[in-house]
Amino acid sequence: IRASWVDIDGEGLESICVFVSRKYVYPSWPVIRLDSKGSPHIVWIQHGDTYETRLATPHYLKWDGSEWVDADGQGQESIAVHAANTNIQYARFILDNADKPHIVFADHIEYMSETEEIYHLEWNGSSWINTFDVRAQANTLIFGFAIDSPDNGHLIFNTCYKSSPPGISYYKWDGISWVDISDRLSKFFEKVGAAYPNGWNIWLDSFGNPHILLEGIVKQWGKDEEFGIFYFKWNGSEWVDADGQGLESVYIPYSSSTLSLVVGTLEPPISVFFLDSSETPHVAWISYDMDIYYAKWNGSEWVDADGVGLDPLNVSFPSDNFGSISLSIDVWGNPHL
Asked: Is the pLDDT of residue 242 over 50?
């Protein structure tokens, strides 16, 4: 079988470049999603219009079958989806069941302000509209977003990462408005003794219940002031760990002393997770020394890729130096990193 990489039109590589930036302008953190027809939609952060203007804003393009166009399907005049006040770091991007794009990000209300506003932008057929109107202090740059099967959004973010217990917000779209269900998470953190949650990752199971992976400081298990990985899920009435009972397995043990995402930094999350076809959680993260770690739940405990114990939990080579990570699971349940 002869095969090769081709660009979007399926022939050659002459159209491999999606968007060309001007001098002193550069894109970062691209995210690609495929719609129900297999056509790609791309969101990225575009930094600055000139060297003096260092603002950054989300951009969006989709493939219409013959060219890259903006959300209205004609040209690229509306490629920028938001007029940024500050340097937006990254955005979450999802297509719902109707192939409608949803883009979530945080932006300061004005330059150098300590107050940030969370935006949830969706395309209504003629323009981008913001359905979310919540302001918060501190680092709301770290957040999670997911959409369930009825196309209801779930949005989680920090409202004050320096407080203890931390300020945590969890909102769910009920079809009409965003409903604040933050109390669930706040009580949970009081129970497990975690502080400074970072790197929110949220996945919804077939029942629409959230599964959450995050990084935080471990305040129990004799590991005070040390970063750890936490996984938990909502069973319909309460937060539980991977075995579905209690919270004794909520903390995933590993040998590295700390995560590379330091509290208060502006870097995107460096922990990821994936629910496979049987809704088994698989998690991966990068340690302080830039090594990659992987673990999965085998029904009774967290294990490494071979399904026995946690050795080797570190899957990277000694000479490697990793700064980002992505995870997917194939139909046989094997992880791809």
From this structure: yes
238 contacts 192 by C-beta, under 8 angstroms: no
Q: What is the Cα 198 distance to its own chain's centre? A: 11
For the stretch 258-293, pLDDT in tens is: 333 333 333 334 678 889 888 889 988 876 666 778
3-state SS class at 185: helix
Scored b (16 or more CB within 10 A) or e, 325-337 reads: bebebeeeeebeb
Please give the full DSSP string across 275-318, using - where no structure is assigned: E-TT--EEEEEEBTTS-EEEEEE-SSSEE-TTSSTTTT-B-S-T
Q: Which of 193, 283, 308 is nearest to 229 (CA)?
A: 283
In this structure, what token pair is assigned to residue 3? 């095969």
CB 231 within 8 A of CB 273: yes
How far apart, in whole angstroms, are the C-alpha atoms of residue 137 and residue 158? 9
CA 81 to mean position of chain CA atoms: 19
Neighbours of 78 (CB within 10 A): 16
Chain centroid offset of residue 304 CA: 23
Encoded amino acid at 117, one letter = E
SS3 41: strand
pLDDT per position as a tens digit, 153-187: 998 877 654 544 556 778 889 888 888 877 766 66
